[in-house]
């Protein structure tokens, strides 16, 4: 009786092991979880802004990397810190591939944000993130090109106001194409999944 039970147990383990191997062998490629821009993928509009050190930053200089582009502001009470925290988790999830990704945070509040304050802000989340700002004249065409909605809600004083704005993360692929976008509070594992597919493709 014990011998028969042992044989049944061994047979069951072999069947389970074979099923796992077959599943891995025939596993379908991963699918993207973000919202696709659709083929042919449009080129991401280039822009130039000065960074915290006073050097010009061009989007095109990051070709070869995946860029995660987000628009927000340092006085944001909820959406921006939440999104940047989630992007930090994305970087943690991709591990040693994080060097192939660049997060760029562009201001929608030039009245209060400078590139220095933006950079100081993003470094609270990850020292490799880049924060950029500029004058409203410099930023307005960038907002337009990326379809960023922006609305100032007056507060109790001239500098105490809220900026309602588009809260989507835009993924630009290694070739500089607009590839995917993610709504507010997209799980970090979904963004990491898509990044890994692109990096391994």
| CATH-assigned fold name of the largest domain | Glutaredoxin
* Terminal-residue CA separation: 53 Å
Mean pLDDT: 89
Total individual domains: 2
Q: What form results from the Cα inertia axes?
A: globular
Task: Please provide a written account of the structure.
- This protein is an alpha+beta fold and 201 residues long.
- The chain folds into two domains: 1-30; 35-200, 3-Layer(aba) Sandwich (Glutaredoxin).
- Helix content is 35%, strand content 24%.
- The protein contains five helices and ten strands.
- It has a six-stranded mixed beta sheet. A two-stranded antiparallel ribbon has the order 2-3.
- A hairpin with a 5-residue loop joins β9 (169-172) and β10 (178-182).
- α2 crosses α5 (188-200).
- The relative contact order is 0.20.
- Residues 4-28 have low confidence and may be disordered.
How do the helices and strands line up, and which of them pair or pack?
Layout: H1 2-25, E1 35-36, E2 48-50, E3 56-58, E4 66-72, H2 79-94, E5 101-107, H3 115-122, E6 130-132, H4 136-145, E7 150-157, E8 160-165, E9 169-172, E10 178-182, H5 188-200
Parallel strand pairs: 4-5, 5-6
Antiparallel strand pairs: 1-10, 2-3, 4-9, 7-8, 9-10
Helix pairs in contact: 2-5
């Amino acid at each position: 009786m014990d011998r028969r039970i042992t044989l049944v147990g061994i047979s069951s383990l072999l069947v389970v092991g074979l099923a796992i191997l077959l599943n891995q062998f025939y596993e379908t490629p991963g699918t993207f979880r973000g919202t696709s821009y659709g083929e042919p993928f449009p080129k991401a509009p280039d822009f130039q802004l000065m960074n915290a050190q006073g050097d010009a930053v061009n989007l095109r200089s990051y070709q070869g990397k995946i860029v995660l582009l987000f628009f927000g502001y340092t006085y944001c009470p909820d959406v921006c810190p939440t999104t940047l925290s989630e992007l930090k988790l994305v970087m943690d999830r991709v591990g040693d591939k994080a060097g192939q990704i660049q997060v760029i945070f562009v201001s929608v509040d030039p009245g209060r944000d400078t590139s220095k304050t933006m950079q100081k802000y993003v470094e609270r989340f990850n020292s490799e993130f880049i924060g950029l700002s500029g004058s409203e004249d410099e930023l307005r065409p960038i907002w337009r090109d990326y379809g960023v909605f922006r609305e100032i809600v007056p507060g109790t004083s001239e500098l105490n106001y809220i900026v309602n704005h588009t809260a989507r993360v835009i993924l630009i692929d290694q070739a500089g194409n607009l590839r995917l976008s993610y709504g507010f509070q997209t799980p970090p594992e979904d963004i990491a999944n898509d990044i890994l597919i692109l990096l391994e493709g």
